């Protein structure tokens, strides 16, 4: 109940924040309209009794009341619905804004490893449209509640026994509530399977997978898995719906029986003269109203419950995981970046992928991280970017613990080209300029960044130069090769020329050898600029041999480090890998 209360408070709070006056009007009008509709029954009672007793005053009063109430209800309902729809959209928009900030604004990536988070996030993404409607559900329920109360009050004035009639709706409401709860539980229970089903759908419709799906003829296999996942999800959810429906049906039977009983009592009263024919009309009208109100109530309660469940999901997801504090304005001091006994296990992982790493990245140096697949190179890059926190040990920058530095400030001092860089399908100038949002409108900064990344030639060949729309799915959009996208990602990383730390994770994986050589020459033999520390992850040892420091990782440990010459001299792991690569290169080029 307290969760429901919190969800209602959240919805009403947001509505008042986005539009106080609309919220006030909508929340006041809903119960007023509900109560006013019952007055139509009263008007009919006056008219019938007035006509039978041949009294003009009650007849006229009844007629006037009926006309006025009907017109007011009609006009005001239309206006209130308009206001409510607009408010509903505003509330939905506010939830979308909050969710985007929540998902994209979280400091690290830990939550993406948490299955419970992923399930809740998938459910919330799929049902987020309901958050705006949830406010409407609250309003409509207020309206129906007012109709019930007003009907009960009027029925008491006729016969106290009849006042019990609205109470018969209670089991119906409870049964409907139970059905919704069962369905919601089934949805939570099957959330993971449903997420897998959606992933399969995305896989089948994702252009990135299109080639392999066709080549390996996987479409049927994927469709089959999707169908099986759907059937399993549907079975559980349908089962819950049917179990709930049985109770709802029984409650309806009870309600209809009570309604007929109430009518019989009143008609009996008319027959023996203890009730007027007008009162019988009132009971018929209110009984009909009660039936329609109950029908709406069952639907509305279902709607309300589901909406509140979605709002509760939002509260659980967002409320319990407030974004890590990134406040403060302390910059990282300049100086060496030092790993002291750093160990790391991915959230939910069972074994350490970095094991007591001791490492010094000298300020201003270019450091190459090399090693076999899975050695831990990208994990070191992720820790340096503050995307994860070490499980043990500490990373310091110029002596200051990275864990104590405001993450936003630290991130503003670094720049990166990640292994799985993002293909922002925007105007080319924006795709690059996003590397420093403040400089986004600055064409010369974008041009310099492109130049530094060796991507000016690419821009010259595009129809609208910097203003070319990227992404073939967009009208007039141009798609690029993976290597060209990578050049733009590298240019993006050049938008912060005064960065303290540059992270390049396989920056040349998609580049041709000439471009790669030219690119790495810029990083490995930087001009006078020695304030920037550069970390390059690469498998191509011939291209990183000029680095100031080469760090060899194996199984999450640093096994060797030194300059190229020193490592060759040591005749260890690096020398062995280097010799193998050089021999392979000599074979392929001869
Ligand atoms: N997101 C993740 N969740 C869980 N484990 C991960 C994740 N990313 C990497 N790992 C594990 O951490 C280990 C180190 O991975 P990492 O990506 O750092 O290696 P790498 O040296 O960069 O490899 P590669 O050369 O293949 O890019 C691997 O064993 C991998 O299975």
Low-confidence stretches: 321-327
Count of distinct strands = 10
Beta-strand content bin:
5-15%
Q: What compounds are bound to the protein?
A: adenosine-5'-triphosphate
* Gap between N and C termini: 77 Å
Strand pairing plus helix content: what structural class?
A: alpha/beta
* Total number of helices: 20
Q: How much helical structure, as a percent, in the residues?
A: 55-70%
- Strand neighbour order, sheet with most strands: 6-7-8-3-9-10
Please state the oligomeric state of the protein chains shown: single chain
Helix-strand pattern? HHHHHHHHHHEEEHEEHEHHHHEHEHEEHH
Mean pLDDT: 83
Question: Which key terms come to mind for this protein?
Answer:
alpha/beta; Rossmann fold; 4 domains; six-stranded mixed beta sheet; four-stranded antiparallel beta sheet; 20 helices; 63% helix; elongated; binds adenosine-5'-triphosphate
Commentary on this structure:
The chain is of the alpha/beta class and 590 residues long. The protein has four domains: 1-159, no CATH class; 160-274; 332-413 and 500-554, Rossmann fold (3-Layer(aba) Sandwich), CATH 3.40.50.300; 423-498, no CATH class. Helices cover 63% and strands 9% of the residues. The protein is built from 20 helices and ten strands. The chain has a six-stranded mixed sheet. It is elongated. It starts with a helix and ends with a helix. The model is unreliable at 321-327 (pLDDT under 50). The chain binds adenosine-5'-triphosphate. Adenosine-5'-triphosphate is lined by residues 113, 346, 349, 353, 371, 373-379.
